[in-house]
Amino acid sequence: MSWILLFFAGLFEIGWAIGLKYTAGFSKPLPTVLTVVSMVISLALLGLALKTLPVGTAYAVWTGIGTVGTALLGIWLLGEPATAIRLGCIALIVCGIIGLKLAA
């Protein structure tokens, strides 16, 4: 169950990271509220997952999910470059996440 909570915590981290772009410096009310709500949910789920998972593993997986998702959505939604080296590095992060899950 903790891994499921951690997965959803990572998804909400993606939500608030991308949401920050749409808040325009916290000047747009709706994106700001949605971003803050995503932050709270993400941290709450991470906290629940930490009841049984090691902090180093959980934090690395949480940030890894957030990093990969945010980078991919940046490419897809925001027109950021999708170079081979960038995609390769994202793949390495995914390998790290899988490795941490297998080692836990």
UniProtKB/TrEMBL annotation:
Q: InterPro entries in the record, alphabetically? A: EmrE-like (IPR037185), Small_drug/metabolite_transptr (IPR000390), Small_multidrug_res (IPR045324)
SUPFAM superfamilies per the UniProt record, alphabetical: Multidrug resistance efflux transporter EmrE (SSF103481)
Alphabetized UniProt keyword annotations: Cell membrane, Membrane, Transmembrane, Transmembrane helix, Transport
**Sequence intervals crossing the membrane:** 33-50, 57-78, 84-103
Any Pfam family: Multi_Drug_Res
Localization annotation: Cell membrane
Identify the domain of life.
Answer: Bacteria
Main subcellular localisation: membrane
The membrane-topology field of this record reads:
Multi-pass membrane protein
The UniProt entry, under NCBIfam families, shows:
PRK11431.1
- Matches recorded under PANTHER family: GUANIDINIUM EXPORTER, SMR FAMILY PROTON-DEPENDENT DRUG EFFLUX TRANSPORTER SUGE
Similarity-based family = Belongs to the drug/metabolite transporter (DMT) superfamily. Small multidrug resistance (SMR) (TC 2.A.7.1) family. Gdx/SugE subfamily.
Q: What is this protein called?
A: Guanidinium exporter
- UniProt source species: Mesorhizobium robiniae
